Amino acid sequence: MPPTPTPDMRLYLLTGLGMCSLAALHLTGALHSRYLDRRGTPMLPVYVGVSAAVTVAGLLLLGPGVLWGSAPTPPALWRLASSVPVGAGVALVGAAGDALVLRLVHGGRAGVRRRPACAATARPREADGTWRPSVRDRRLPTGPTWTLAAAVVEETVFRGVWYDVATRADALPLRLAALALGVVAFALAHLFFGWGQVLAKLPLSVAATAAVALTGTVLAPVVGHLLFNLRAWHRNRPAPGTRGVAAS
Predict the structure, then answer these.
(1) For 74, left (φ over 0), alpha (ψ -120 to 50), or beta?
(2) pLDDT tens digits along 54-106
(3) For helices 9-22 and 24-31, angle between their N-to-C axes, nearest 10 degrees
(4) Are 146 and 43 in contact (CB under 8 A)?
(5) Sheet strands (E) in the chain
(6) How far does Cα 143 stand from its chain's mean position?
């Protein structure tokens, strides 16, 4: 018997929401390159805006449980009390894993900045792979505001909206596969900075996913990602009087 389309429109909306969650970076790139790049608009604020729109759509379709969880998750007091220490643990695991992966990828030079994968106009400065930012690269905001905003919306999308969509699957293997897809999609959102950064963000993604599973709320991953990005910005911020790019 051939399959028949489901009459439940909410299922189609849920599918579209999940696809938008995983494709937030792709949507950002298309929107930015087609309409906003010519106006000099940096890409990071566009990414924050697209991710925020996906979060709002998730809240409208799925309700506040996307961010806060519902029964049988831990009680509200536990979620609040655990957010900071669990978030700090996420940041520590993410930072340690990030440094280890970059050290392995870059042959012991974890702090070396690599040429972004999308920066075709950048010119290598040294034989070891360091790079000189192009004019386009310098358009990326180097202050902490957008970096921290990106941390919040990435967590509301990947550990909020997508996590909720993934855990709605009936079969456990499907749930695990969907969660793994979200982990990888988050890492791929850092492809601008090269494949090394993609691999380096996997520990943070796994830790943040485990945190939301443990606490039942996106607060802990948000705290952890904020601390992680703040540390990354502090370590990579340009020297006074210069301009550069802070990878997060």
Answers:
(1) beta
(2) 999 999 988 888 888 755 566 778 778 889 999 999 999 999 999 999 999 98
(3) 70
(4) no
(5) 123-124, 131-132
(6) 18
Joined together, the tokens standing for residue 175 give 């749930």
Q: How far is CA 168 from the centre of its chain?
A: 21
Position 89: which residue type? G
Q: What is the rounded distance in angstroms from the CA atom of residue 185 to the CA atom of residue 178?
A: 10
The CB density around residue 85, as the number of other CB atoms within 10 Å, is 11
Query: Tokens at residue 190, please?
Result: 């850092």
User: Tokens for 180?
Assistant: 């793994």
Q: Pick the closest to residue 183 from 116, 102, 94 (CA basis).
A: 94
211 vs 116: CA distance, rounded Å: 30
Cα 208 to Cα 234: distance, rounded to the nearest angstrom: 21
CA 109 to CA 124: how far, in whole Å? 16
Task: 46-54: list long-range contacts, CB under 8 Å, 24+ apart.
Answer: 47/150, 47/153, 48/146, 48/149, 48/150, 48/153, 50/24, 51/24, 51/150, 51/153, 51/154, 51/156, 51/157, 52/153, 52/156, 54/17, 54/20, 54/21, 54/24, 54/157, 54/161
Rounded CA separation 162/171 (Å): 17
Read off the pLDDT of each residue in 188-205 and give the average, rounded to a whole number. Answer: 91
Three-state DSSP class for residue 169: coil
User: Is there a contact between 220 and 82 (Cβ–Cβ < 8 Å)?
Assistant: yes
